Amino acid sequence: xxxxxxxxxxxxxxxxxxxxxxxxxxxxxxxxxxxxxxxxxxxxxxxxxxxxxxxxxxxxxxxxxxxxxxxxxxxxxxxxxxxxxxxxxxxxxxxxxxxxxxxxxxxxxxxxxxxxxxxxxxxxxxxxxxxxxxxxxxxx
Length: 140
Hints:
Elements: H1 2-31, H2 40-59, H3 63-92, H4 97-119, H5 126-135
Helix pairs in contact: 1-2, 2-3
């Protein structure tokens, strides 16, 4: 039994040190500019590190420590969720109906103009015209 208790304590200590290192490495990397304090890596390191420390605090009935680490992990988790939601709104952002209609009209006009220019024998760029002239296919 004593051996199992020693083994458990060494495992708890290992988890505690790992959690502490994750939080400290993220903090130091943020202070020296290697990680952004608003970045996902920083937040994930804090979530995992603080979460591990909160579990250790709960196992050892250290309520003040549990409150601190639980709050730290929760704040980091909220930051990640908000940042992910912000990223998703930028990807899914839709333009209003009138704006879409106006853009479609402009795009249609551009396509018609391009088709007319191509049909009339005009070229899309000066480089293309120069290339055709150099081949002798177009009389200038």
